[in-house]
Amino acid sequence: MNKKNLLYLILILIGATLLRLWHLDKPEGIWNDEYLTLRIANARLFADFFTAINSNCHAPLHYLYLKLWIFIFKDTDAYLRLSSLVPGVLSIIVMFFAGLEFKKKDGSNVAVAAAFLTGISSFLIYFSQEIRIYSLLFFITSLVLLYALKIFNSPSKKNFFLYSLFSLLLVLTHTIGFVFVFLSTAALMVFAVPKKNTKDFLLFSILGVIVLALPFVPLISSILFKNGYFSQWWAPFNFSRTLFIFTDIFSPVLYDTFHVYNTFSDAFYKNGVINVGYLVFAIIPTLIGITCFVNGVLNPKKVQGYMLSVIICTVLVVLIAAMAGKIVFVTKYMIEILPLVVLLTAEGFCAFKSKAFKIAIATIFIVLNLFFFAVSKTSAVKLVREEGQRLPVATIEHLGLKKNDKIMFLYYPKEWFFRYIDFKNPDNAPYENAFGVSKYDYSYFLAKNLPHNESSYGIKEKNSLKPVFAHKENDFLDDWLDLRIFKELERGDKFFFVDLTSVSFFPMNVINDIASSKNTSSYDSAPLLYIVMSYVKGFTLEKAKKELVYGGYYNTGAWRIYVFEKA
User: Fold this and answer.
1) What is the Cα 124 distance to its own chain's centre?
2) Whether 148 contacts 188, CB under 8 Å
3) What is the predicted pLDDT for the residue at 540?
4) How far apart are CA 88 and CA 129, in angstroms?
5) How far apart are CA 281 and CA 260, in angstroms?
6) CA 319, CA 461: separation in Å to the nearest integer?
7) What sign results for the dihedral spanned by CA atoms 56, 57, 60, 62?
8) CA distance 405 to 418
9) What angle do CA 207, 213, 219 make, to 5 degrees?
10) What are 541-548's contacts with CB under 8 Å, separation 24+?
11) Euclidean distance between the first and the last CA atom of the chain, given in angstroms as a whole number
12) Which residues contact 171 (CB under 8 A, 6 or more apart)?
């Protein structure tokens, strides 16, 4: 690597790091998935750690990494987000060397382009600021790609071993990472490994991964095949949504990450109105990216064949699983293909012969990405995690919480909000005595003699609750609310009801109708969690409006805080 390329790499690293540091400490705080990640990372080794992992959906490596990070550094939001920023920046270096390896003789331009695309990617910037597995996953996958390319150039035992090692780390990071590893290894057998090296490759790559992964097979199997987990009740599959994968990868607009629209066409044309901003900032960069990618695969070399076959087969496997209702088809679940896509796109850009054309499309691509990134309120660093648990806390504080007020949380355990509460302030005492209906344990708010563990609920338990939902009256819940809230309030005291609107959107009359209808299809298809939260919300608000003076509601992110006062 010459000094000029080293200078380019340093400049890209500085710029990419600054982009990832901007708005790193989110005002909305951490949200559900981040909190679950943090909770598992904080679990005690070994008594609770692997039990906590088994209750979630991801393999253990990222949690171990985060546990070590917390041990070394602080566990404030900003420091926790830095745990994703570091592998996000290191990935740029790996992709640079992958570019050099991709074109061994003259890969400097491809290396710089690959590093730049990785650095400027809004999708990767977003996950470099989130306390989840995806930034580390991209970093590990880029290392798998790097050593796959090294196998093309030098099929040595060392490269086989390191490819095997990073493949193992990938499997231990992402529960469905074995799909990519299997397809990548099979493609290497076809495109890269000479017959004389087959024995070494089998020994160090295939058998190596299998043997090293054996101790973790029971854990990953239990995560992958436990009843009811890999379903997409929260995001039903449709073919139109699959197109968002292209805009998420190539443009600064991240609609697929936040499930803003149900169909791709809604993003740029809805209710007779054309979304010009989407056409400019999403479609144009995406078309440029796709054009470069296609140009990158036109050169019929074995290395392109390896990467293209892995990309296509990985997407097809996830697509089939999504169509079968086993997984959600979203870009982040296929992040393993992103290093390959970036490298082929970089190769395609560099392969254009016209210098003027390259300057033109590069200028348009960079200007649109950076302008949107800097100006838009929905850029990667400004996207609000609308379930962030600092939001309702800040709103309640703004509304004037007093010592004897009452608070009731819907959906998340009350302890999840304590991270953002100063208990030295006596006015925050209501948080210690707050009540909630948690998604993890809600049955005893509905009826007696039901399982208290959400994971115990199947079709039988759901059907047993139909009579409860069919009526507006519920003596059990009514008595509980009286005992814990309404009879405790005195004149002038307030009651704050904190609702997560994205999970409690059914009106009470709709719940009554679908639960009492002879046609069971609506009830059977509606997720129990949505029905429960909507029912508890509707019941509590109706009772509160009878007992107290309604003071209106306040929206903040995905939260709505209803305010009542004792007359």
Assistant:
1) 12
2) yes
3) 93
4) 9
5) 16
6) 31
7) negative
8) 17
9) 150
10) 541/497, 542/472, 542/508, 543/478, 543/481, 543/486, 544/486, 544/495, 544/497, 547/486, 548/486, 548/489, 548/495
11) 76
12) 59, 177, 178, 181, 209, 213, 216, 220
Per DSSP, 57 falls in state: S
Q: Which distant-in-sequence residues (6+ apart) come within 8 Å of 285 by Cβ?
A: 250, 251, 252, 364, 365, 368, 369
- Strands annotated E in 340-445: 406-411, 435-438
Q: Nearest Cα to 345, choosing from 149, 102, 128?
A: 102
Closest CA to 124 of 294, 338, 333: 338
Residue showing tokens 């440029």: 288
pLDDT at 444: 55
Q: DSSP character for 485?
A: T
Mean pLDDT over 499-507 rounds to: 91
Residue 307 and residue 82 in contact, taking contact as beta carbons nearer than 8 Å: no
Residue 46 is given by DSSP the state T
Q: DSSP letter for 131, please.
A: S
- Displacement of CA 22 from its chain's centroid (Å): 20
Q: Residue 234: which pLDDT band, with cuts at 50, 70 and 90? A: low
The Cα–Cα gap between 495 and 480 comes to: 15
Residue 392: partners with Cβ closer than 8 Å, 6 or more residues away? 417, 498, 556, 559, 561
CA–CA distance from 548 to each of 195, 404, 477, 497, 543 (Å)?
80, 15, 17, 12, 8
Q: Give me the mean pLDDT over the 242-259 stretch.
A: 88
Say if residue 46 is exposed, middle or buried (CB neighbours under 10 Å; 0-12, 13-18, 19+).
Answer: exposed
Tokens 């901003």: give the residue. 277
Distances (CA, A) of 91 to 101, 120, 151, 237, 302: 15, 12, 20, 31, 24
| Range 417-427 burial, b when 16+ CB lie within 10 A, else e | bebbbeeeeee
Place of tokens 């290191």: 90
Q: Is residue 435 classed as helix, strand or coil in its secondary structure? A: strand
In Å, how far are 180, 235, 473, 481 from 323, measured between CA atoms? 19, 12, 40, 43
**Helices within 400-550 (DSSP H only):** 429-432, 459-464, 466-469, 475-484, 508-516, 521-525, 528-547
Contact 181, 167 (CB under 8 A): yes
Binned at pLDDT 50, 70 and 90, residue 347 comes out as very high
Spatial CA neighbour of 303 closest among 97, 95, 161, 104: 104
DSSP class of 24: -
- CB-CB contact of 162 with 212 (8 Å): no
> 3-state DSSP call for residue 518?
coil
Q: Which two tokens stand for residue 499?
A: 């609702």
Indicate the helix (H) or strand (E) that contains 550.
strand 549-556
The residues near 195 (Cβ < 8 Å, ≥ 6 apart) are: none
Q: Is the pTM of this model over 0.85?
A: yes
- The one-letter amino acid code at 408 reads M
Average model confidence (pLDDT) across the chain? 87
Name the strand (E) or helix (H) holding 274. strand 273-274
